[in-house]
């Protein structure tokens, strides 16, 4: 098997909600395991926090996420950017609409100086998304 690189996003108590949102955006299958599932029920209220989740999509995307253990600071600080790019304008615009809804648009989805249609937003969970619709070279 070839090596693969996947984004793994750290959350501070809302990983389940965020990962379910990403499943609505991208589709696919979501698996979720809590700290309690792994025998850490003594973690108090933290037993229901997400220890590991993974979203796999038919488009070939894999996105992982977890809550930091209760009382710990968010491991990632929520400071990660995720880039999604390709040539299927309809699919990518659909992702953009869902990701930017309820979030903050920093760069509107429009043609950029390098020729692609690009937008950048921070979603409602504080994650920055870069969506790039690659334009065919003439």
Automatic annotation (TrEMBL):
Q: Which Pfam families match?
A: Glyoxalase
InterPro entries referenced in this protein's UniProt entry, alphabetically? Glyas_Bleomycin-R_OHBP_Dase, Glyas_Fos-R_dOase_dom, PhnB-like
Taxonomy, superkingdom? Bacteria
Domain Glyoxalase/fosfomycin resistance/dioxygenase span(s) in chain numbering: 11-129
* CDD domains, A to Z: PhnB_like
Q: What is this protein called?
A: VOC family protein
Q: Which organism is it from?
A: Kitasatospora aburaviensis
């Amino acid at each position: 098997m070839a090596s693969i690189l996947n984004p793994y996003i750290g959350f501070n108590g809302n990983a389940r909600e965020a990962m379910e949102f990403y499943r609505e955006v991208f589709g696919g299958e979501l698996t979720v395991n809590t700290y309690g599932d792994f025998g850490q029920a003594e973690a108090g209220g933290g037993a229901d926090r997400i220890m590991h989740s993974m979203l796999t999509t038919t488009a070939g995307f894999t996105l992982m996420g977890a809550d930091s253990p209760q009382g710990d600071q968010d491991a990632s600080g929520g400071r990660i950017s995720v880039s999604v790019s390709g040539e299927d304008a309809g699919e990518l615009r659909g992702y953009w609409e869902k990701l930017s809804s309820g979030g903050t648009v920093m760069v509107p989805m429009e043609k950029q100086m390098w020729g692609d249609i690009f937008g950048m937003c921070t979603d409602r969970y504080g994650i920055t998304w870069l969506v790039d619709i690659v334009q065919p070279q003439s």
